[in-house]
Design brief:
The complex is a heterodimer of chains A (483) and B (458).
Chain A: H1 3-19, H2 22-31, H3 36-54, H4 66-84, H5 86-90, H6 98-109, H7 125-153, H8 160-163, H9 178-202, H10 207-218, H11 236-250, H12 253-262, H13 267-270, H14 272-294, H15 301-316, H16 333-343, H17 356-374, E1 378-379, E2 383-384, E3 387-388, H18 391-417, H19 422-433, H20 452-466, H21 470-473, H22 478-481
Antiparallel strand pairs in A: 2-3
Chain B: E1 2-6, H1 10-20, E2 25-30, H2 33-42, E3 46-49, H3 55-60, E4 68-71, H4 76-90, E5 94-98, H5 102-105, E6 120-122, H6 124-137, E7 141-147, E8 152-158, H7 173-176, E9 182-189, E10 192-194, E11 207-213, H8 217-224, E12 233-237, H9 241-250, E13 255-260, H10 263-272, E14 277-280, H11 286-291, E15 299-302, H12 307-320, E16 324-328, H13 332-339, E17 346-348, H14 350-362, E18 367-373, E19 378-384, E20 408-415, E21 418-421, E22 433-438, H15 444-451
Parallel strand pairs in B: 1-2, 1-4, 2-3, 4-5, 5-6, 12-13, 12-15, 13-14, 15-16, 16-17
Antiparallel strand pairs in B: 7-8, 8-11, 9-10, 9-11, 18-19, 19-22, 20-21, 20-22
Classes of the chains: A mainly alpha (483), B alpha/beta (458).
């Protein structure tokens, strides 16, 4: 364990992160909302902490090992979660307790989009902007994490993307160096954000809303500057723009990279994961439209269509924007949508959930077991596209799935123990571990009413989901800390 | 012709055998002294010991005045280098190389004169694969041979009771099938050839060779035997190169299973094949065959490199109820042994499938395609008629007037895209592709002479 190097990186990280307090200060000055002080204080504290951490070890450059990677990744999200809560804690309006500020900050950075705040429309612009920006930064972190770092650590079958990238992407990495890869991904992320903001703005949002929502859309976050979320704008056009960009952001960024480099959008459909992702979203859309229309929940077909498509994509990609309270939808629909969020988006996207590729491998593995019963001596490798997937990857995916479900169950029971009803507990854990956002029952609109213990548990759920479970769990094993 | 053969393996030695018996000067080069000594004792040829790619060795083999070099060592790379050496140092006119790797074959531009000067590439695995594939497309056929790029096929079938034409004179074919669809090229009855005439009566058990356009083959076969149902389920035994390629070629249209014995190879091919089910086990394992529903299998094809295993597993499969059984057999003696037996329907001989391609280049006159039949005793030839009525013995003449040797028979003519069945009064034009059947290969010289353009033309 190279603790000095880890601390050094953390110091740099905090100093860089402190700079992200500057845009909200500018927003605050621009709108004169009187919330400049909390951001200035947070800026100073974060920068100071960073310098204090950095200076003593500034010359200790050491080779980082895989094991240090786990620690750095976990610290990245926890430490930023804590420091990100500072401005919220210090501000006068809204006046937030520690647990609430932490919850909001963590929800932002993990791009979950669950909020404890209400009356968003009356909050100072700088705070609103800051929340959106947290999600955007979180999204960017995830992309780099998922494409460049997790494959190296080999978490939950993600080594698939290291050695055996299926489909059109044959290179082990996009570019030979992580730094170059990160830069390429950052360009794609920026390009998506700018296009999204432009589209929102042209569709009628104010510039402030357009930028804010583009941040949380491309990050598949789900924070909004309005209580009514996207529903506030009451515009099918804006909803369809959001749908487009949620789907784009839910696609593996490595595939975006290939499409961009080859200038050929047909590559999207060459990737088996993307194909399945589209397939799932379309199927869910059709089922929701059919059921809503059958039960005549909305008056007109047009209304049914745009609400159904928007909600199916928003929940399916784990963004969690709402145009309508889907928790009130008839029959099995709310639970169906929640289950769809378990599948989530593609790996190496900003979306959450188990990830489409893992779901695909689980399904194929299950199918293989059935085929093995019929042909006991058959050799049947699980294939993605036309490439066989190693048994090690399949094992890792099963392990991931089992752990995911086990943790889900434990946390749901823990939530019920804090006094929440079953639907609320179930949906809250699902929404947080899948980095979705809104749940059902008491947490359908916001998480303000539930107890502090429950919020801490849910923060853990967000972090577990975001860090692909194992990255966090590995830190709790004694073997990890043994020298 | 002076021919140098590099590599005295299975293909090399059977090639040497075939070519030496046709009065060619054959020199065989190999690195195995025992093999060479043995061949020299048996066949009328010269042998040279040494590395086939080294120029001194080629020189010693007489490369400077050789007409043709055939590189069939077991290394693709050595074969290609040998052709390069022969081209650069000795200017050998015809260079033939065996190249197996699909990785090379998929880039034809590699083999142009200014890159890798190979005039003809042969890939035995590919030839055998196509051979078996054609047989599966026409269940019931003993042999299916392509001519004129697949426009015309020659098919061998055994006549059975129940075929409308069996017991009838050949001329009645026209009554059964209106239109001019097929021509019977030869009939073999109890191993002896019969030249078909209008009044020849087809008997049950006859092996009938007919030519027809590709789309009419099924209908003609229906005249000679009760039609087999189209093939659906196929089991291949042996996942070597041939087995894997065949599975790849068949898996989109049929339900294919492939049995492979070594776990590692089974794993490898299962990763490359898309729909084929790869079974790990022994092809002669009764339990495995039953478990995989052998009694409902249409074709069982034994393709390992072990003749005995292929014969035995084929027999077992037949006993267990497979409808049609094919075995890949290298040893000529076994081919005869098996061909007549009840258990194995078709013996596939890789040499016979390969040799035709090479023979086409040895033949004088413009011969495009040669298929060696009945262990080389008979031959089916596609030759192009060149010249004018003055210079050629075939152009401008009706078929009845062409002085064909006894036992030769013109089946059909391909003129451009058109397929014409041969009649007595059909007149051959220049550039026609003529498909002939030769019951006795010893008459080949006379046929070659017919298709050579006379001196006056030059």
């Amino acid at each position: 364990m190279n603790l000095d190097a880890v601390v050094r990186i953390l110091g740099v990280l905090l100093m860089v992160f402190s700079l992200t307090m500057l845009p909200p200060i500018a927003v605050s000055l621009l709108y004169e909302d009187g919330t400049t002080m909390p951001f200035l204080a947070a800026f100073a504290v974060t920068l100071g902490t960073g310098i204090v951490l950095f200076l003593p070890v500034r010359n200790r450059r050491g080779e980082l090992r895989t094991r240090d990677g786990f620690l750095i990744v976990v610290l990245f999200w926890t430490v930023l979660g804590v420091t990100g809560a500072l401005p919220l804690l210090l501000s006068e309006a809204p006046k937030m307790r520690l647990v609430d500020a932490m919850f909001e900050s963590m929800s932002g950075l993990t791009t979950t989009g669950a909020t404890v705040l209400t009356g968003l429309d009356e909050l100072p612009e700088s705070i609103l902007y800051y929340r959106q920006q947290l999600q955007w930064l979180g999204g960017m972190g995830i992309i780099v994490l998922a494409v460049a770092i997790l494959p190296m650590l080999g978490i939950g079958g993600m080594q698939l993307y290291r050695a055996e990238m299926p489909g059109p992407v044959k290179d082990a990495k996009l570019t030979p160096r992580i730094a170059e890869t990160a830069k390429a991904l950052w360009y794609i992320y920026m390009a998506l954000t700018i296009t999204c903001a432009g589209a929102y703005w042209l569709a009628g949002m104010t510039l402030f809303d357009a930028i804010g929502h583009s941040f949380s859309t491309v990050a598949i976050g789900g924070f909004s500057t309005h209580d009514a979320s996207i529903g506030y704008f009451n515009s099918p056009l804006i909803e369809m723009i959001a749908v487009t960009f949620m789907v784009l952001a839910g696609i593996n960024f490595a595939v975006h990279f290939v499409v961009w480099r080859r200038r050929n959008p047909a590559q999207y459909l060459e990737d088996p994961e993307v194909r399945l992702f589209f397939g799932i979203l379309i199927t869910v859309c059709v089922v929701v439209i059919f059921t809503l229309w059958q039960s005549s929940y909305y008056g007109s077909l047009g209304e049914t269509l745009h609400h159904a498509i928007f909600q199916a994509v928003s929940i399916g990609t784990t963004a969690g924007f709402t145009t309508t309270s889907f928790s009130q939808w008839p029959g099995y629909l709310p639970v169906l949508l929640l289950f769809t969020s378990f599948i989530g988006a593609c790996a190496a996207s900003t979306g959450g959930g188990i990830k489409v590729i893992r779901f695909m491998l689980l399904f194929k593995q299950g199918n293989r077991e059935i085929m093995r019963l019929i042909h006991p001596s058959a050799q049947m490798p699980v294939k993605v596209g036309n490439r066989a997937v190693g048994e090690r990857v399949i094992d890792a995916v099963w392990g991931f799935f089992a752990t995911y479900i086990a943790l889900f169950t434990l946390m749901m029971l823990a939530l019920m123990a804090t006094g929440l009803d079953q639907v609320t507990a179930f949906s809250a854990v699902a929404a947080c571990i899948n980095n979705l956002g809104p749940g059902l029952g008491d947490v359908a609109a916001h998480y303000g009413e539930i107890g502090a213990t429950a919020k801490w548990i849910l923060m853990l759920a967000m972090l577990l989901g975001r860090l692909e479970v194992f990255t966090l769990l590995v830190l709790f094993t004694p073997a990890f800390w043994r020298r | 012709m002076k021919i140098i053969i590099l590599g005295a393996g299975q293909v090399g030695s059977s090639l040497a055998h075939n070519l030496a018996s046709e009065a060619n000067d054959v020199t065989l080069v190999d690195m195995n002294r025992r093999l060479l000594a043995d061949l020299q004792d048996r066949l009328d040829l010269r042998t040279v010991f040494g590395n086939a790619t080294h120029p001194p060795v080629l020189m010693q083999a007489g490369a400077d005045d050789a007409d043709m070099i055939i590189a069939v060592t077991n290394s693709d790379e050595a074969n290609m280098i040998a052709c390069q050496v022969a081209y650069t140092l000795f200017h050998t006119p015809t260079k033939i190389a065996r190249v197996r790797a699909v990785e090379y074959l998929s880039y034809p531009q590699l083999f142009s004169p200014d890159a890798m000067p190979v005039d003809v590439l042969i890939s035995p695995e590919q030839l055998v694969t196509q051979y078996v594939k054609r047989l599966i497309e026409h269940p019931g056929a003993l042999q299916v041979l392509d001519f004129a790029g697949g426009k015309v096929r020659m098919v061998a079938v055994r006549a059975y009771y129940g075929g409308p034409l069996v017991g009838q004179e050949l001329r009645t074919l026209a009554d059964h099938m209106p239109g001019d669809h097929a021509r019977v090229a030869a009939i073999f009855r109890r191993g002896k050839a019969i030249i078909p005439e209008g009044n020849t009566v087809i008997e049950a058990g006859d092996e009938v060779f007919f030519v027809a356009a590709r789309k009419n083959i099924r209908a003609v076969m229906g005249e000679l035997r009760r039609l087999d149902k189209p093939v659906k389920r196929i089991i291949l035994a042996g996942g070597g190169n041939i087995g894997k390629r065949l599975a790849q070629a068949l898996e989109t249209r049929y339900q294919v299973k492939i049995i492979e014995r070594t776990p590692e190879r089974a794993r490898n091919i299962s990763e490359d094949l898309r729909k084929t089910i790869v079974l790990l086990g022994d092809a002669a394992d009764e339990e495995l065959l039953r478990e995989e529903n052998i009694e409902n299998t249409d074709v069982f094809c034994a393709l390992t490199n072990d003749d005995e295993a292929n014969i035995l597993s084929g027999m077992l499969a037949k006993r267990l109820g497979a409808r049609m059984v094919m075995s890949l057999i290298n040893r000529p003696a076994y081919v005869d042994l098996v061909q007549g037996s009840e258990d194995i329907d078709i013996a596939i001989s890789p040499q016979q499938a390969t040799i035709g391609t090479l023979l086409a280049h040895v033949r004088r006159g413009d011969v495009v395609m040669v298929h060696s039949l009945r262990r080389g005793a008979a031959e089916a030839i596609e030759a192009v008629a060149h010249g004018s009525p003055e210079s050629s013995k075939v152009v401008g003449r009706a078929i009845a007037d062409i002085p064909l040797p006894k036992g030769a028979n013109i089946g059909c003519i391909v003129r451009g895209d058109e397929v014409l069945m041969a009649h007595h009064d059909t007149v051959i034009q220049a550039e026609d592709h003529v498909v002939l059947f030769l019951v006795d290969k010893r008459k080949i010289r006379e046929v070659e002479r017919l298709f050579q353009v006379g001196v006056t033309f030059l």
